């Protein structure tokens, strides 16, 4: 961890101010504050704009060596300005089959929701919005990572600027800096005379994201100077198309039944059938790999007699035929076939 020193004290208007002027979150607002450059810039800018209405939540990742330094930096920053801060301790351990990054992300969102709940008691009113500091470069990295995995539309849609979660329906989640380049945030902090902490893992080339940041983004900058906004436009198109696919999937699922009827699935075009199968499987917490989905569709097409059985591994369980419909059961759940 290296404290970065400010180089100038002169404030200058720039993309961060414009981003905040375009943004109208419900207040009070809590900023997810790591102590890194991006969230330090976001918290400082929000606090300057809504001085009495901004709080902060820090997630203390106990497993990282530098975690105490980050927590101490956040405490000091907030105490200097009278910003209410809540620190949540969280040790994310990946479940079987889950990546460490995904485990950390899920645990962070749960911790932030918990932090918002705790802050409500301190402030005497509920937190209405939580803001995260991902910026335009993070968005491009997310899109490139999705492309490198061969992701479908949900991956290409990258990160939404606003969303809500079913586990805390009254809370609005925002990413107000998605159109601001990362370098502009650091430049703004320097102009404000504000330092921040550098996460040592950001320099580790073992992480694909870091290699994209250091090698691919500079090359894109040279070849396509407008890549941040054009890539973001493509992601927005993907997000809109994905919304439409989900609406169609929901209609088809409602028509096919909670446990989708095989005959109803057979009546759909292959693309539409794959769409509703993915949607149904996601609703039970299973993600079908492309090959599993292809095999499932093959078996649905072949299922023309009473005695035809379907049993196919998908996610942490199995898709099975039960009567005239499909069910999904977790691997350890007992099942009696009556097909
Ligand atoms: N330990 C944490 N506590 C609270 N919020 C966090 C924490 N880590 C990340 N966040 C929030 O999630 C956002 C995305 O996290 P990520 O680790 O990708 O960010 P980053 O690029 O390192 O940003 P930052 O420079 O703010 O740390 C951060 O900008 C911040 O708003």
TrEMBL record:
ATP binds at residues 34-39. It is found in: Cytoplasm. The keyword Disulfide bond does not apply. The keyword Cytoplasm applies. It catalyses: cytidine(34) in tRNA(Ile2) + L-lysine + ATP = lysidine(34) in tRNA(Ile2) + AMP + diphosphate + H(+). Residues 30-214 form the tRNA(Ile)-lysidine/2-thiocytidine synthase N-terminal domain. Keywords: ATP-binding, Cytoplasm, Ligase, Nucleotide-binding, tRNA processing. Transmembrane segments: none annotated. Its EC number is 6.3.4.19. It comes from the Bacteria. GO terms for cellular component: cytoplasm. GO terms for molecular function: ATP binding; tRNA(Ile)-lysidine synthase activity. One of its GO terms (biological process) is tRNA modification. It is an enzyme of class 6 (ligase). Residues 262-324 form the tRNA(Ile)-lysidine synthase substrate-binding domain. The N-terminal region contains the highly conserved SGGXDS motif, predicted to be a P-loop motif involved in ATP binding. Belongs to the tRNA(Ile)-lysidine synthase family. Ligates lysine onto the cytidine present at position 34 of the AUA codon-specific tRNA(Ile) that contains the anticodon CAU, in an ATP-dependent manner. Cytidine is converted to lysidine, thus changing the amino acid specificity of the tRNA from methionine to isoleucine. This is tRNA(Ile)-lysidine synthase. It comes from Allofranklinella schreckenbergeri. The gene is tilS.
């Amino acid at each position: 961890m290296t404290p970065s020193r400010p180089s100038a004290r002169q404030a200058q208007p720039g993309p961060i101010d414009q981003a905040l002027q375009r943004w109208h979150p419900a207040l009070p607002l809590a900023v997810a504050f790591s102590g890194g450059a991006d969230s330090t810039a976001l918290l400082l800018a929000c606090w300057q704009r809504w001085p009495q209405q901004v709080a902060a939540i820090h997630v203390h990742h106990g497993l990282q060596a530098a975690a105490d330094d980050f927590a101490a930096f956040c405490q000091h920053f907030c105490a200097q300005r009278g910003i209410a801060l809540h620190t949540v301790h969280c040790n994310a351990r990946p479940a079987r089959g889950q990546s460490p990054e995904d485990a950390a992300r899920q645990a962070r969102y749960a911790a932030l929701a918990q932090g918002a709940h705790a802050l409500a008691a301190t402030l005497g009113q509920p937190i209405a919005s939580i803001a995260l500091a991902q910026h335009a470069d993070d968005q491009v990295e997310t899109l490139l990572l999705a492309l490198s995995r061969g992701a479908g539309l949900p991956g290409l849609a990258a990160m939404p600027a606003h969303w809500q979660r079913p586990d805390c329906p009254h809370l609005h989640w925002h990413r107000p800096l998605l159109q601001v380049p990362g370098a502009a945030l650091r430049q703004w902090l320097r102009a404000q005379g504000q330092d921040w902490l550098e996460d040592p893992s950001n320099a580790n080339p073992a992480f694909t994201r870091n290699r994209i940041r250091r090698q691919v983004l500079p090359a894109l900058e040279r070849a396509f100077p407008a890549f941040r906004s054009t890539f973001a436009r493509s992601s927005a198109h993907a997000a809109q198309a994905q919304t439409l696919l989900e609406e169609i999937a929901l209609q088809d699922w409602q028509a096919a039944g909670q446990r989708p009827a095989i005959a109803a699935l057979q009546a759909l075009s292959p693309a539409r059938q794959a769409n509703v199968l993915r949607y149904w499987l996601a609703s039970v917490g299973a993600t079908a790999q492309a090959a599993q989905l292809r095999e499932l569709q093959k078996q649905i097409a072949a299922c023309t007699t009473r005695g035809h059985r379907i049993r196919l591994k998908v996610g942490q369980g199995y898709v099975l035929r039960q009567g005239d419909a499909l069910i999904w059961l977790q691997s350890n759940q007992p099942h009696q076939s009556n097909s």
